[in-house]
Specification:
Length: 148
């Protein structure tokens, strides 16, 4: 019988909106070094990601692709970028969703330890909510109106 991949836990994932005083090249180089050291940290262009679900879905798909050995890239972080941008070409994924500058971007880390390792690289950090919170509020309003 074929074993199905286990569904990755996303409860420890950290998603933040941030900026950095580093150049884009310096920041990306340092993030790559963290990923090479065993952490999973990815940066996304804040103008092209609208929800936490988009990022978490990419993470889950990336983890499952490594479990079932269907991954295209060598790291979960890069695989996430591929899933989030809906392409199998790394250069295309970077063009679509990679950070464009260090003024405003989204940081994803798979756990608090990974985030803590990268935190010193960022400034002006705040929680990234996206439109997920709007959907939650709309659902609560609809349920209240329907008496659920």
């Amino acid at each position: 019988m074929t074993a199905f991949p286990t569904f990755p836990d996303t409860s420890d994932c950290v998603i933040r909106l941030a900026s950095s005083d580093l150049s884009k090249e310096e920041l990306v180089k340092k993030i790559i070094a963290l990923n090479d050291a065993g952490h999973t940290v990815q940066l996304f262009d804040a103008n092209n990601i609208n929800s936490r679900l988009h990022i978490l879905g990419a993470y889950v798909n990336a983890r499952v692709s490594f479990q079932d050995k269907s991954n295209v890239s060598k790291t979960i972080a890069t695989e996430m970028l591929l899933f989030a941008s809906m392409t199998t070409q790394i250069s295309e994924a970077i063009r679509k969703l990679g950070i464009k500058n260090t003024k405003k971007f989204i940081v994803f880390a798979d756990c608090e330890e990974s985030y803590s390792s990268a935190r010193k690289l960022f400034k002006d950090v705040e929680e990234f909510r996206g439109f997920d919170d709007d959907i939650k509020v709309l659902r609560e309003m609809a349920e209240a109106r329907l008496g659920n």
